[in-house]
Amino acid sequence: MPKDITYKFCFGPWNLSEGQDPYGPPTRPVQTFDWKLGQLKRLGFDAMMFHDDDAVPDVDGKSDAQLARESKELRKKLKDAGVVAEIVAPRLWFDPRTIDGGYTSNDPKCRQFAIRRSLRCIDIANHLGCNLIVLWLAREGSYIRESKNARRSMDYLVAAIDKMLAHDKRIRIAIEPKPNEPMDVAYVPTIGHALALASLTRDPKRVGCLIESAHALLAGLDPADEIDFACSFGKLWSLHLNDQNGLKFDQDKPFGSANLRVAFNQVLALERNRYGARGEYVAFDVHPFRTTKVEHWTAHLENSRRTFLKLVEKARTYPEAQANKLIADRNYAALDQLVLEHLMGR
Ligand code: GLO
Ligand code: MG
């Protein structure tokens, strides 16, 4: 097992959320971006991930010149804080024009809006000195199967990604699959779908993926296998570690919170693929529990990183020779117990 990767960590301003859910309002006072950046710096994280409108609020109401000015101001603020922007993602799921999907809306004007907004997201990324765009295809799917044409939707998705790739030759796009929520059924539910879609674009080399643990679990998959699959194509360009207790709403729990062994296997997969060696970041797409008091607001992020680093130790001290002997003997009962005892420690 390689022992030399020093991981770099990241989160987004939305990961210091205020506690609102579909059933109730915030439980903590709304905080400014500067406060959130201050927390990121205080915790010693290396990078921040952005939605386009985290970087430039009300992006649609602003001119290109304003957009350039505000993103450059942000770049300076980040530089002064010693933090970089890891990714920028177009937040396509808030606008009234994307109610029925962005790139795959049935309304051509809405599809055009989604593309225009994505190109401006690329401009923001450029101003921030960041060349990785994340596409979480939130509303690209259907509530009822008959409402949209899935075959045509694939063409729309490819056309939208092609426009983004043509807009700027240096950007790369990482697709973040999720099988459901907010949609009943999403068009790009897994890494296999994301990479197959990438292969249809004008420049597949510049289209990769982002794995989120909870999204893989919601698709009924093991996130560690998704990691190995993506890495075997050289396509894992970003990562949202978190956890999820079974098939229910997207929980964004702290990493390892629901299933430590599944978390361990993700770390083992990252280690064997040398994730991070090409500058990739470990981001935690986690949320505080709604019950969290103001004074404990950052605990879910600190805990996720702490668990991650402890599991890196577990991966690096995993008794591989012993495990290999048990594998050769097809003694999986003993292998199972070896893993459990390794995780529990002495
Ligand atoms: C929601 C997603 C979301 C994205 C983020 C970046 O389920 O995980 O948090 O990661 O918007 O595109
Ligand atoms: Mg995510």
Describe this structure in words.
It is a single chain. The protein is an alpha/beta fold and 346 residues long. The protein has one domain: Divalent-metal-dependent TIM barrel enzymes (TIM Barrel). 43% of the residues lie in helices and 12% in strands. It has helices at residues 33-42, 52-55, 64-81, 108-128, 150-167, 191-199, 213-218, 223-232, 260-272, 299-316, 320-328, 332-344; strands at 9-11, 47-51, 84-89, 132-136, 141-142, 172-176, 185-186, 207-212, 236-241, 282-284. The strands form two sheets. Strands 3-2-1-10-9-8-6-4 form an eight-stranded parallel sheet. A two-stranded antiparallel ribbon has the order 5-7. Helix 9 links the parallel strand 9 and strand 10 (282-284). Helix 9 (260-272) crosses helix 10. The two termini are 22 Å apart. 44% of the residues are buried. The chain binds D-glucose and magnesium ion. D-glucose binds at residues 89, 134, 136, 176, 178, 212, 240, 250, 285.
